[in-house]
Amino acid sequence: LASRDFHPENTVISIGDVNIGGGDLVVMGGPCAVESPEQIDEIASLVKAAGGQVLRGGAFKPRTGPYSFQGVGVEGLVMMAEAGKKHGLLTITEVMTPEYVDVCAEYADILQVGTRNMQNFDLLRKLGTCGKPVLLKRGFSATYDEFLNAAEYILAGGNPNVMLCERGIRTFETYTRNTLDLSAIPVLQSLSHLPVISDPSHGTGRRELVEPMTKASVAAGADGLIIEMHTDPDNSMTGDGVQSLFPDQFAALLRDLEKLAPLV
Ligand code: PEP
Ligand code: MN
What we know:
There is one protein chain. About 35% of the residues lie in helices and about 15% in strands. The protein is of the alpha/beta class. An 8-stranded parallel barrel has the order 3-4-5-6-7-8-9-10, surrounded by 6 helices. The longest helix is centred in the first third of the chain and has 14 residues, at about 35-50. The radius of gyration is 17 Å and the shape is globular. The two termini are about 25 Å apart. The structure holds phosphoenolpyruvate (PEP) and manganese (II) ion (MN). Manganese (II) ion binds near residues 32, 238 and 240. This is 3-deoxy-7-phosphoheptulonate synthase. Keywords: Transferase.
């Protein structure tokens, strides 16, 4: 079902007046984690003002260690839904377990599967019937074939609205957190009809690389971007402050993107 051989036309995922995969560039921006109502409200206003269409933020965080901040949970879903509604943005949030799919689908417009859960097949099956579009992140050691097979689980479950997200893979390089695999963008677009989103934040792990790798992703043909932005990155509640743009950098980047590709 994911293959272009059996579905030659691009899949366009329409949510409200935002079309993902239809030729317009879609920008999803926001913090790694929802921290408080004030934090997500302020960031939502900045994403909207900069021209973004989707507010990102994790209420459930897949942390490497069990003692790290794990997210604010269901309350975070409520905070983000309110901020999205108030500022006219769609919302995307990560769901980590099948049990939480229904509540995440109730509050968010798009459900995100994180890199660590790309092959959580019970979760993927459950997302097949969730009724909401899914952004599936590539596992950090997954081949294109494994990635497309993971998407296949969601599609086979009855959900045609899947977007693929390149978020960097693990290589021998340690200067960057991950290596953003730009080739994934044209390769996945040729093998599949699903929209391809790039995540230059997790793909590099370094704030100063987000701008050039965002532009490179657009040049490579990405259908959209998911970018971390925080009003106070140095004091953010996850370690991802180091890769989060300041609001003025985010706004400047989107102004530059307007020159490369029309924003929705
Ligand atoms: C995130 O988007 O904050 C995240 C945890 O991403 P990934 O699953 O790509 O690490
Ligand atoms: Mn993050």
